[in-house]
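Hello forum,

I keep getting stuck at the same step: I have a sequence, I want structure tokens, and every attempt I make locally crashes halfway through. Rather than fight my setup again tonight, could one of you with a working pipeline run this one for me? It's a single chain of 129 residues.
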Amino acid sequence: MRVDDLIKSLMEVESCSVLRARFGREGEDRLLDIFGNHNGFPVISTFDYEPGEQDKALQTLLTELVVWRNSKADLLIDNEVHLSKVTEHEDGSYDIQYYPVILVKEHDGYLIVQASCDESPSLREHFEA
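Reply #2:
Ran it on my machine without issues. Output:
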């Protein structure tokens, strides 16, 4: 999903109490965190839900997306938005994996930003312990 398409989808939502990220149809819900860049690509980082964690507000995410889009002008507007997640390994190293956003949907009082279950391996980062 392109930045403009994601902004449009989020603006069409009339009411939403909680934003969540999901990887694939049956994936575990995660909290949305910081919107930013990875080598110029628009990325929304995610993390596991912990009781008491603050939910990201829809308006905050929209503002971040619009600011990013406006700052890039026409440079990278056609790039897909990705959700990222960290996978930790037993040896203490970890990977940051990136998954393209495919849709936004309302489900059981949540607004789900859903990513493909297929990773974009060219964007993956590995960090040693």
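The longest helix spans residues 58-72. If your local run keeps crashing, start a new thread with the error log.
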